[in-house]
């Protein structure tokens, strides 16, 4: 029996929402196959990976903590991608944001001013914007491909971070470990009670909702969508491509920077050489899994956060390598992009053409 | 209707017989039990409005699409054509409306690329030369395609088909890009082919052409064959009435009274470089349009119309503000939104992705160009209610067939979307309207509605610039005409002084240097 893929002619509403679900199901099946190939019990493997981490209250709170940066970066990237600007350097903007804010936090005497923390956050945002601004400048001035420049800037940011925490910013009382001093109480992200849930966990979905409203209701959001879907129509309407490219990159860079400074002043508490386990890259998956919709990004961020926790649990309970997280995310993105074909296409059975019985 | 179906007498043995062809697309029955018989050595017209199912039927014959039901008989043998390669092997050639040529390659390289069989490529240049002289299709095999006029490009496609000795040649709207002189040369070629026994299936909606060229016609409407006839025995009006169900309203706008106002749009020595590769630079363009006047710009596609539209709408800024004056204000370097604020409205030729965004709703597409003049936004937010109301107003005033303002633009047929877009600009009550190809791909009923709207707008004092490749349209609507060729605009003439011959010569570029002349006219 043969099947052929043929265009539908219009978007299928069912598959617009069904495709991420299908991708998640296929990912789970594939992960089970991988578990059994590695000699682990597949059902128990999936349970360890996807259910154990969130079966306790502290598990749930660490899910939110992990999801916060993913949602923040992912929402910004979703806006950026809507405008057809392919920023994949979220990790670099995250790092630069963390550095910019942390520089101030380390320089100020602890608890000097009440506005120290807000100022640290602002600098974090500016740091991320600066790093994304370089991408915008190179794209508009030299027509440099933003995918390449934003990716390369990730490595530069990473190297700056390593240089600072092993050199000028190394904690003198840190026994030579490559890390900065802990931030003072005046520059620490507040958390709630005994849980590890912090301000960023509230801020992230809130910002995603704000971005949703901007995209859906504002003239600016309209312009971003038009320039992404039909650049010539944007020119016809008189929307400036340069201005919109700047805005898309500055917004996504700023959000990545904010995620970065919240992460180091919150859960981490200091600068180390590894402040991100690839949040900026996972956020690319988050943006697509969430259908480039800020609200979808909230759910996708939770799922990807779970993959980090599941990876940790699989390491501890099943003796699996750390790479299992990356494999899960990669398989998920693969199926998601594959399943998206169904939005604009359908399978049709080919009947063998009636034989001309002679 | 039955008598019309029956009164064709087939004098010649049939080459191709189609019976009961059905093709269903999502939401649209494109071919509904279509029967078609093409005799050997005849020029057979396939006539119908856009969306009548002509292209689908032709794609089925050429093996691009498979029918859902029905049978095909070729030379007395039942066949099912699975691919264009198989169609070519049977002896079916097709010249598409949109050419598939590589701009950077030469004529003979392009032809070689279209040949499947390596042995066809032997002695290619001498065979090209032989065919082009035999059928009056002059071509220089060594010239690069981007240096050629559209007419010459079409000749490449025809020669490419003829190299394979086709028994049936399908031509899809071949004259839409040609000058009148080029059209008559093409007809000579087609008649010569017919005399040698080649059948031609000629697809068009230009009635006069079909009456001069074709011996038999099959007329389609809404996916069905509605009539067969001998087009020479019918008037163009009869054919048009068969093609569209309703009786045609008599269209004669020559008696309209014109009240000219002051100069509303002045273009003064406008020279710009095209921002497209292989685009056309504009050279020293000057014209003036008064209020109440419709100024036509005729010309063959690709002679600078797109660039002129971009320069007037503000997508490409002019060299100096004084190059363009709108109601006396120097706007040559203003951005599109500033021009709209001053009363300029624009509608480019391409609907999808330029004048409209297919994936967006009609309401959003209304907002796209009308938000400045229609005050559809406030404090940086879209005023959703006013935006929907504006779209609803356009839909109502222009009788756009759609489910409402929240329908996606691409769900509309071409003609309906064009009515919406024209309505979007007209209802903004522009002082100056620049509109390109307003009825391209639009059925006769929608075209009449668009013409009516433009005339009413002019009567209300708007200065209208109509850029079109359709000479009938320009002669019908315009008060004065100029012709654009190779980026230069001819002097304007009154429509009463304009003849098809005069315009045709200008289209070929006779008012410009010899270099362009040699380039645009057949050698």
From TrEMBL, chain A:
Which InterPro entries does the annotation name? ABC_transp_permease
Domain of life according to the entry: Bacteria
Keyword Transmembrane among record annotations: yes
Q: Which GO molecular function annotations are given, in alphabetical order? A: transmembrane transporter activity
Annotated membrane-spanning segments are 21-39, 59-81, 93-112, 118-140, 147-166, 197-215, 244-262, 268-288, 295-311, 323-344
Task: Enumerate the subcellular locations listed in this protein's record, separating them with semicolons.
Answer: Cell membrane
What's the main place this protein lives? membrane
List the record's Gene Ontology CC terms alphabetically: plasma membrane
- Give the bilayer topology: Multi-pass membrane protein
What Pfam families does this protein's entry cite?
BPD_transp_2
Ordered alphabetically, the record's keywords are:
Cell membrane, Membrane, Transmembrane, Transmembrane helix
Q: What is this protein called?
A: ABC transporter
Its lineage opens with:
Bacteria, Pseudomonadati, Pseudomonadota, Alphaproteobacteria, Acetobacterales
TrEMBL record, chain B:
Where found? Cell membrane
Cellular component terms (Gene Ontology): plasma membrane
Keywords tagged on the record: ATP-binding, Cell membrane, Membrane, Nucleotide-binding, Repeat, Sugar transport, Translocase, Transport
Which InterPro entries does this one have? AAA+_ATPase (IPR003593), ABC_carbohydrate_import_ATPase (IPR050107), ABC_transporter-like_ATP-bd (IPR003439), ABC_transporter-like_CS (IPR017871), P-loop_NTPase (IPR027417)
Respond yes or no to whether keyword Translocase is given for this record.
yes
Highest taxon in the source lineage: Bacteria
ABC transporter domain segment(s): 16-247, 265-511
Report membrane topology.
Peripheral membrane protein
**Family matches, as Gene3D superfamilies:** P-loop containing nucleotide triphosphate hydrolases
Principal place where this protein is found? membrane
Q: Mind listing the GO molecular function terms for this protein?
A: ATP binding; ATP hydrolysis activity
SUPFAM superfamilies given in the database record: P-loop containing nucleoside triphosphate hydrolases (SSF52540)
Query: What is the protein named?
Result: ABC transporter sugar
């Amino acid at each position: 029996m043969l099947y052929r893929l043929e265009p539908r002619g219009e978007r299928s509403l069912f598959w617009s929402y069904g495709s991420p679900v299908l991708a998640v199901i296929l990912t789970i099946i594939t992960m089970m196959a991988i578990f059994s190939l590695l000699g682990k019990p597949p059902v128990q493997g999936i349970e360890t990976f996807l259910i154990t981490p969130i079966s306790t209250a502290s598990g749930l709170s660490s899910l939110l903590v992990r999801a916060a940066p993913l949602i923040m970066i992912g929402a910004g990237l979703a806006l950026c991608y809507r405008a057809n600007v392919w920023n994949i350097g979220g990790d670099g903007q995250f790092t630069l944001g963390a550095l910019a804010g942390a520089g101030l936090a380390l320089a100020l005497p602890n608890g000097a001013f009440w506005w120290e923390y807000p100022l640290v956050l602002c600098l974090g945002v500016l740091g991320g914007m600066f790093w994304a601004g370089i991408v915008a400048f190179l794209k508009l001035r030299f027509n440099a491909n933003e995918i390449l420049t934003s990716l390369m800037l990730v490595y530069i940011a990473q190297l700056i971070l390593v240089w600072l925490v092993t050199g000028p910013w190394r904690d003198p009382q840190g026994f030579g470990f490559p890390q900065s001093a802990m931030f003072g109480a005046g520059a620490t992200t507040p958390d709630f009670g005994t849980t590890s849930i912090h301000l960023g966990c509230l801020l992230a979905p809130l910002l995603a909702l704000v971005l949703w409203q901007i995209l859906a209701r504002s003239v600016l959001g309209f312009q971003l969508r038009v320039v992404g879907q039909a650049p010539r129509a944007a020119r016809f309407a008189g929307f400036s491509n340069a201005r919109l490219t700047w805005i898309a990159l500055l917004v996504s860079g700023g959000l990545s920077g904010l995620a970065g400074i919240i992460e180091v002043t919150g859960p981490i508490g200091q600068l180390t050489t590894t402040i991100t386990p690839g949040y900026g890259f996972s956020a690319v998956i988050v943006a697509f899994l969430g259908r480039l919709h800020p609200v979808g990004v909230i759910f996708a961020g939770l799922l990807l956060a779970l993959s980090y926790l599941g990876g940790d649990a699989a390491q501890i309970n099943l003796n699996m390598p750390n790479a299992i997280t990356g494999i899960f995310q990669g398989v998920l993105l693969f199926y998601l992009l594959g399943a998206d074909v169904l939005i604009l296409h359908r399978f049709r059975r080919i009947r063998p053409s009636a034989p001309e019985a002679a | 209707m039955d008598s019309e179906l029956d009164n064709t007498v087939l004098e010649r043995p049939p080459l191709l017989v189609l019976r009961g062809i059905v093709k269903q697309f999502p939401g649209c029955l494109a071919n509904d039990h279509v029967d078609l018989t093409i005799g050997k050595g005849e020029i057979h017209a396939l006539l119908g409005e856009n969306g009548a199912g002509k292209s689908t039927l032709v794609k089925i014959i050429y093996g691009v699409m498979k029918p859902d039901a029905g049978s095909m008989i070729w030379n007395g043998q039942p066949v099912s054509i699975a691919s264009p390669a198989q169609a070519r092997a049977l002896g079916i050639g097709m010249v598409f409306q949109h050419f598939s040529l590589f701009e950077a390659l030469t004529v003979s390289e392009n032809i070689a690329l279209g040949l499947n069989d390596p042995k066809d490529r032997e002695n290619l240049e001498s065979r090209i030369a032989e065919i082009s002289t035999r059928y009056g299709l002059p071509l220089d095999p060594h010239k690069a395609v981007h240096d050629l006029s559209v007419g010459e490009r079409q000749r490449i496609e025809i020669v490419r088909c003829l190299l394979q000795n086709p028994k049936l040649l399908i031509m899809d709207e071949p004259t839409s890009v040609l000058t009148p002189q080029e059209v008559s040369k093409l007809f000579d070629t087609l008649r010569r082919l017919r005399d040698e026994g080649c059948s031609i299936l000629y697809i068009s909606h230009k009635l006069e052409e079909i009456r001069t060229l074709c011996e038999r016609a099959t007329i389609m409407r809404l996916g069905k064959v509605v009539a067969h006839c001998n087009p020479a025995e019918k008037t163009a009006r009869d054919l048009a009435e068969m093609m569209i169900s309703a009786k045609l309203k008599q269209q004669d706008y020559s008696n309209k009274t014109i009240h000219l106002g002051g100069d509303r749009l002045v273009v003064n020595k406008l020279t710009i470089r095209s921002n497209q590769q292989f685009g056309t630079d504009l050279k020293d363009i000057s014209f003036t349009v008064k209020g109440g006047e419709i100024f036509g710009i005729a010309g063959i596609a690709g002679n600078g119309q797109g660039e002129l539209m971009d320069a007037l709408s503000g997508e490409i800024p002019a060299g100096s503000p004084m190059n363009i004056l709108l109601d006396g204000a120097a706007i040559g370097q203003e951005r599109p939104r500033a021009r709209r604020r001053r009363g300029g409205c624009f509608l480019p030729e391409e609907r999808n992705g330029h004048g409209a965004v297919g994936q967006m709703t009609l309401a959003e597409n209304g907002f796209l160009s009308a938000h400045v003049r229609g005050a559809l936004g406030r404090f940086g937010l879209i005023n959703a209610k006013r935006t929907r109301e504006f779209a609803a107003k356009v839909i109502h005033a222009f009788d756009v067939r759609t489910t409402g303002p929240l329908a996606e633009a691409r769900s509309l047929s071409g003609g309906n979307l064009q009515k919406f877009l024209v309505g979007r600009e007209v209802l903004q009550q522009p002082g100056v309207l620049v509109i390109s190809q307003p009825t391209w791909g639009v059925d006769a009923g929608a075209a009449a509605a668009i013409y009516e709207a433009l005339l009413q707008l002019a009567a209300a004092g708007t200065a209208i610039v109509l850029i079109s490749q359709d000479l009938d349209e320009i002669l019908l609507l315009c008060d004065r005409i100029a012709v654009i060729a190779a980026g230069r605009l001819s002097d304007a003439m009154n429509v009463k002084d304009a003849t098809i011959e005069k315009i045709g010569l200008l289209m070929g570029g006779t008012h410009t240097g010899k270099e362009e002349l040699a380039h645009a006219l057949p050698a």
